[in-house]
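User: I would dearly like some help making sense of a protein record. I have put the entry right below:
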Amino acid sequence: MLSKNNATKVLDKEIAEYLARMKDDLASLKDLLNKLPEQIKKLLETLQEMKKGSVPDESADYWEERKDIDKWIDILQKQEAALKKIKVTYEDLERKFKNLSADAKKAVDVAAKQAVRDELKKESNATTNLLEEAFDCQDAVVGTQKEMSDCQIPVNIRMRANEIDQFRERLANITEEFRELKQADDAYEGTSESEQEIKSLIEKIDRKLKAFETEKQQHNQYQKKPLETYREKDIFGADNAVIVREVRTFKEKIADTMRRLKELDELLRELNNKLISQDMENAAKLLGQKSKNLRERLVIAKDELNKISDCGDDMDGNTSHTEEEEFIDALKEEMPEVFKNIEGNFDQLDKIDNMIEDVIKNRDIDTMQELKGQIDDAQTKVEQCEGLVNKLENEIIEWDATKKLCRRDEELGEIDGLLKEFRADMTGEKACMDEGEKKQKSILDTAKAQNDIDDANYLLEGVANYRAEIKSLEKDIDGLDNDRADCFGQFDGEIPSSVKVDRNKREAAAGKARKVTPSTASDKPEDMYYKLKVNAKYKQRIHDLLKRLRDINQKRRDLMEKYAGLKKDLNVVKAPRVFKAMKGDPVDELWCWHLNKAQIDIDCKRLGPGKYCFGSRNIMCKIINGKLVVRVGGGYMSADEFIEQYGRIEILKAMKMAGDPDFENARASLANTGVDGLRRSGSNPRASKAPVDFAAMKGAMAGRLDNAVGYEEGARMNSPGIGSGRSGSAPKKGNAMGMSSPKSGGSPKGRR
């Protein structure tokens, strides 16, 4: 039973530990409560902007993501509500902590200290549980942000660029058609009632075209800056709601521009009709020019649709998402009908050309009216065809061709890096075998006992077998590396500059920047169809290389596991330290028995009856009720518990003094055993790790303290016991790969 003084010390220690633990947890909670709500607020702002961009129809930027957006908003709002509750509880725990800290200082007698200790234990556990809840909220928030990724911002920016290109092309067509209509009006030498209306309409269209030219420059400038100047840190930043809003409002501006451009097109039609009414001959020529323009536009649309169809064929079987597969299936099903309709449009334009010749020749007003109807119908069909091109192109833009090519490039880099690691592993294994072979040959040179000779020969046979299998695996590695190098050389010659730029950035971010930055020059186009074609060409080939890499890695792991026993036996230097007791000393006999049972490799010296130097610590042992105990502070601890707990500390000290390379890892692992073992730094539940197995640590120490002075002048015995003067050779370890001795019968080949 502990004395009053000792009990007070134990309680003070426990109170201090619980206070420190609760203080650490409260500090972690405070940090999370300061950080997470603001992070959630910014993510919700981004999602609200995305939600606005998910309507009204499938042309919206976030139409396909609308369900995900609602799901993410729901998750974040739940975490926001949970954090509010956590904050209320945190404030209550913070007040309790201050009160308990004051109570701990006031408590004098044992009963008061016990009451404070018990209350502290309860509130400390409550704080740890609350911190775990806060970490759960953090996991949900981080997971949601990861799913949101780049919020489709880069893709949507490219779609704006595509929409601007469509606007420029349409404006150029209207401008050219207007120029031809003006020329037709200038060429007309007669007079008509509508002449003044025509002049007024020409002036109106001219003003609008100039305004559109200004608007075109503004759109181009806004696309280049700020949209195309945003970088990854801006897009993935917490404040990207601003960028989402900018991209969405810019889409609305472009859509409004296209709507007004369509109104201008109607004015152009009106002008065309008035000029036709004014002069039938010139009108026929104008309609002929319009038919020519429509044919040119239809040819361009057909070429673009051919590109899209070819792209679908290339990507068939090389898709990354279900949406891409569905799109390609739709192309295969619908494109034949689309091309059939286009051929019908060309036939209609051929008919229009014949009608124009007939009107010029016969000047028939009915034919002219029919011609106008055919031209208007053909124009509608050409515009529908162009609209289909724009729609399909936007779908393909979302595939992010550049990202796909960069991923292929990254995969080749990963293969190269892993092959280098495999080679390094094999080099290390061969060095281990060289060292083991040297040791076993040295044993053969000096061994006299047949058992030792047989074991050494058996281990040498294992070394030879392992080397042969390493050589075979290295051959596989070299073959894969040669194929990778060939693939990379061809791939590098076909990728555009943007992919090489991304490669340099990626290597710099990973700390692999080279002294001389590799050239990013390339004469290959940045066209998305070309990029997708290159991606389709190399994707399966690269994935075949990755499959071979996985097979080699599995072989490597199987090989190292197969010969782990061999490596262990080659590294056995000596048997565990055995402590010999002094006859007639029951305390010493029990102490040696406990030390040998623990198989601990640590210095221990008898200083006198019941007194020992355990590592760097002087201790006292005695027998109480037939059990050996060790004096610790104001009380006693069983010998097994003392060796288990304080042996860790002494092993760490020995490792540090010996300059052991595993010291830092061992110390970090042992620091996480909790307040019942070594006190860990902080009590963050997410930072805790599983405690290190003591037996594993003893194994790691085997052979590292060869020069340490043994107990009672380094005497050894075969097995633990009390009071016997046993001596003899150390017990044999298992031989190669955990196999029994070759003397046990059977051939050593194929044993595991």
In short: The beta strands are 604-608, 611-614, 617-624, 627-632, 635-638.
